Amino acid sequence: MNLELRKINITDLKLGDQMKVENGTLTINEKKIIDELKEDVNIKDVKVDIAVPGEKVRIIPVKDVIEPRLKIEGEGKGFAGVSSDMAQLGSGKVNVLNGAAVVTIGDVVGFQEGVIDMWGEGAKWTPFSSTYNIVVDITPIDGLDPHTHEQTVRFAGLRAAEIIGEAANEVEPDEIKNYNLGNVHEETEKYPDLPKIAYVEMLISQGLLHDGYVYGVNTQDILPTYIHPNEELDGAVISGNCVAACDKITTYQHQNNSVILDLYEKHGKEINFQGVILTPEVTTLAGKFRTCDYTVKLCKSLGADGVVISEEGYGNPDSDLLMICKKLEDEDIKTVLITDECAGRDGMSQPLADTTPEAKAVVSTGNVSHVVTLPKADKVLGDDRAIATLAGGWEGCLENDGTIRCELNAVIGATSEIGYHNLTVKLY
Amino acid sequence: MSSKCYQIVTNNPKVKEEFQEAIYIKGDFEDVLTKTRDLVHKGAELVTHPLGASIRMLYSPYRSIIIKEKQDTINDFYIQTIENSIVTYQKHAATRREDSDNKHDYENVDYQLLLSSLKECESLFYDNHTLSGGAIQ
Fold it and tell me: Whole-angstrom Cα distance, residue A99 to residue A271?
């Protein structure tokens, strides 16, 4: 598969009558977005706003973040199998509005708390404070059941990204990135002496507000499955998880999966990148044994010498992560785990809900319990009431002047377990 | 075909209403974990993991766990899993309080996640998976 991501750098954002890019300025026709989204009979109202880096704006509660793109050559338009016709993704040419993001908001339930601050202290902690954000606030019709409500908001976000992506039509890119990976035999013939490395990407797959999707299929319903890395970079993997703010993997982060991009970077130099195995994190223990065995079998079938495993979430998924690690190591396949830590305010507590001695190489993407202070915003996009929820969970953290003290776990993408975030790791 | 009974341990009123045979705990999340631990020590198997998939769900006032009724042998794995879950929960409870402001939403999400788990059970267990008192719905 050969995928060309043609990046058009966005350096400013404004509302206007047309959808276009001129000299790095993205103009958004909000009426077009509203009209098209309201074609969905489940949507009562849509509001479109913009938020640019540095503004004293808070966006809350965030459901998903999506990168707007337009495929100009090759199969599959937008999110194939979901908001457009099914197609094989992973090949062709895609114009990317690099630096722009669609942010969907709207509370499906009252305790969603994901926040993006576009300025100051809060901006430091989320990668989506430096994107030019088109904020789409979706109000569904009354009386929808929670699953339909969630699906309505999820689809609207994807559709909005497709509509905005049309602004990239006939715009020359600032940078072109090529991603080309043959089948495992071809790559091993080319690089016979390099270690064969597979990537296991775990996805929360547990029900309402705790799901992931591949080509629109709920990952609750899949066995671990092999995909070409280009398919994920081309929009095959979609987020449906919106309560674990800091370590949910947004659709934007799937489209720009840092582990995939880094493995690509090292492919043919240090490693032979074998591809991606998507592994669902289910709720039953028997299901966890099954996905563990199946994941290990796929890694062995690929002949992998080593595997990078990234987690999504905290709690019961820690068990999946460590079971897969242990079983791979028992098979003499080296593992590197990527996870965040829930290590207490002082960072001194055991960071995961489970542990195993085989987990020797673990990359931490940050401590979700770290406390941050977020000053009062001049403007809130979304639901003001959600701020109380953000502060919830412990006493006395919403100050009279509107300042909030909260844990990092409320900040979108703060401790991304696929490494698409602002924190870094230092060895002491 | 063997017949094994499944049980739900819950403090969620909505679950109690829908599954009248559930073991209903008048108490908090930790009480559900403690009751589950007691049953596991007496030989019950854990069917679902005692913890949720995100920190947010540790704020939930409600929790529902599926177990399999008493087995012939006691399995260390299940004991270790429930004991670790209690330690993890207590660690969180020391610095966070449950989010009772949104208790109705948590009640519903816990119920919805339970329904997903029951659906998952259907695909996993070919034996006659009955809830104590009625078929899994």
Answer: 30
**Quick one: closest CA in B to A352, which residue?**
B88
Provide the ipTM. 0.92
| The residue to which tokens 């223990």 are assigned | A285
pTM over 0.80: yes
Q: Dihedral of CA A9/A14/A18/A19: which sign? A: positive
Nearest-CA residue of chain A relative to B90?
Answer: A353
Q: CB B52 to CB A111 under 8 A?
A: no
Nearest to A111 among B52, B88, B99 (CB): B99
Spatial distance between the Cα atoms of A196 and A302, rounded to a whole number of angstroms: 8
Packing angle of the helix pair B29-41, B76-93 (nearest 10 deg): 160
pLDDT for res A346: 85
Contact A367, A411 (CB under 8 A): no
Length in residues, chain B:
137
The string of pLDDT tens digits covering residues A356-368 is: 999 999 999 999 9
What is the Cα–Cα distance from A173 to A95, expressed in whole angstroms? Answer: 7
CA A300/CA A90 separation, integer angstroms: 24
Cβ within 8 Å of residue A170, ≥6 positions away: none
Q: How far is A284 from chain B (nearest CA, A)?
A: 4
Contact B121 A109 (CB under 8 A): no
Q: Are B125 and A286 a contacting pair at CB < 8 A?
A: yes
Which of B51, B112, B121 lies at the smallest CB-CB distance from A284?
Answer: B121
Q: B61: helix, coil or strand?
A: coil
Cα A41–chain centre separation = 27
What are the residue ranges in chain A where pLDDT is below 70? Answer: 391-396
The answer to whether A279 faces chain B, any CB pair under 8 Å, is no
